[in-house]
User: Fold N-Dimethylarginine dimethylaminohydrolase from Micromonospora siamensis.
Amino acid sequence: MPQDPHPRTASRRHYLMCPPTYFTVSYSINPWMHPDRPTDTDVAVAQWERLRDLFLDLGHRVDLIEPIPGLPDMVYAANGATVLDDKVVVANFRHAERAGESAAYKEWFQNHGDYDVVPAAHINEGEGDYLVSGTRILAGTGFRSDPAAHQEAEDVLGAPVVGLTLVDPRYYHLDTALSILTEDLIAYLPEAFAPASREVLAQLYPDAVIADPDDAAVFGLNAVSDGRHVVLPKAADRLAAKLAERGFEPVGVDLSELLKGGGSAKCCTLELRHADPTGAAR
Ligand code: ARG
Assistant:
């Protein structure tokens, strides 16, 4: 494989995370969740802390939202909202088990800075299904977010939305099947998308990194990129090698406990994008 000639540059990010203090799997709303299998909250906390420390070591800012007892999925902070230029669309969860999280995220944004906070009328699960790719937003549907939510996101966030249909229940959120690497480069698993969506992706991203099914199955695409470092589950070794060939620095993490809830690195990480780019350091 030829080396990518472009040097990769990291930019400082601002993330919101939620400690898994009350993490467990007590219900099942995706095929990864088995309430009959034991979970270890202490292990989840230790793995999550390593992820947070890694972001800090990479120079990023991490803010925290207080976890709430009885909302075990709150650790998957990516689902709480979508933020672009200080505009926030708050999630409106599909399942009753997570509905209580919306108010918590709304309140956090209202109390932390100059965000323009809009509660969503339509079902959407934040950055689980909305991924900002340069000037556009890639928006998943099929399992969680409602297609009607896509127009709402476009109106509120002011960026064109490209709708993509997911077809494999294991990849129920867009961020389980596709990762944003840079403004114009993505990695994805074609098999997770309906044929028409595959065509759209192939056309928009002819240079995309194509993931192997085995890497997707360990949540390798649930990755967080700062433009240079790509934080992803360490079991996704083929994907890590492909990223290295393209000039990225893959950083493997172990989030095996949080995978029992159907999430990994990206699910735990909500990016706060500010109108003033220097705002990332606020
Ligand atoms: N148990 C959670 C759910 O099914 C996991 C969410 C994972 N988050 C993500 N961004 N994909 O809703």
The helical segments are 41-57, 101-111, 147-157, 195-204, 213-217, 237-245, 256-259. The mean pLDDT is 96. The pocket of arginine is lined by residues 29-30, 33, 73, 76, 78-79, 98, 128, 173, 175-176, 261-263, 267 (CB under 6 Å).
